């Protein structure tokens, strides 16, 4: 079978190249949507005792707090009249959000547990509704509306499990771009040193790139049917480049051995 594939590639080299180019372009178009379909979270075993306990808490007590807003008063502390008024307004607006429930603030309860010892910071606790994917989709709107350096005279930062998961999903993409922008040029330099030929050095990177693009296309299709972790992108690039380079090195070495043996 492999002999027939090789003969076809040799006899119809231009056709094979055109079909391969079109296939990679199509996979690139499909794979570009993979990042929007991948999700964070999904780390809990649905059958574990802790997960079952979490479901009971959600059903009986309205859910665990998964969004924490840290509010800082620039002057006078959180008990100052202006800060208190702004804090109460912030909590009131959050309670009106359809995607939030169980909103509790320091200014509503007066609990010292929700205020820092120096009196400059206080917390607003809330629960975002829905599953991990739904929470991630609704989170950015909440952050855009209520967090920032100047929200009614207060500085508001977001934390909690939902905010951390959303930040991780965003950070994974930027870290991936940074890592590949460093790894690919370094790999190319090493391959040039090893092979001493631009064509031979570029071939492993091309094979790895095709593998990565194809896998992204598969992830985009899978993401339409089931939840796929956003960290799959890191595995895709690592394995795609690693295996692509390994197999390309094997092919090139075998090709050179055959040439040295007198095969043409």
Task: Describe what you observe in this structure.
The protein is of the alpha+beta class and 264 residues long. It has two domains: 22-41 and 166-260, no CATH class; 66-159, Alpha-Beta Plaits (2-Layer Sandwich). The protein is 64% helix and 11% strand. The chain is built from ten helices and five strands. The chain has a five-stranded antiparallel beta sheet. It is elongated. The mean pLDDT is 84.
What structural keywords apply?
264 residues, alpha+beta, Alpha-Beta Plaits, five-stranded antiparallel sheet, 10 helices, 5 strands, 64% helix, 11% strand, elongated
Assembly state:
single chain
Q: Would you tell me the overall average pLDDT?
A: 84
Could you give the order of the helices and strands? HHHHEHEHEHEEHHH
Biggest sheet, spatial arrangement of strands: 2-3-1-5-4
β content, as a range? 5-15%
Question: Into which percent range does the helicity of residues fall?
Answer: 55-70%
Tell me the number of strands: 5
- The termini sit apart by 22 Å
The residue ranges in which pLDDT falls below 50 over 5 or more consecutive positions are: none
Summarize the helices and strands and which ones pair or pack:
Layout: H1 2-11, H2 13-31, H3 34-37, H4 49-61, E1 67-72, H5 81-95, E2 100-105, H6 106-109, E3 121-128, H7 132-146, E4 148-151, E5 154-159, H8 161-195, H9 198-223, H10 232-260
Helix pairs in contact: 1-2, 2-9, 7-8, 8-9, 9-10
How would you sum up this structure in a few lines?
This protein has 264 residues and is α+β, with helices and mostly antiparallel strands. It has helices at 2-11, 13-31, 34-37, 49-61, 81-95, 106-109, 132-146, 161-195, 198-223, 232-260, and strands at residues 67-72, 100-105, 121-128, 148-151, 154-159. The chain has 2 domains: 22-41 and 166-260, no CATH class; 66-159, Alpha-Beta Plaits, CATH 3.30.70.
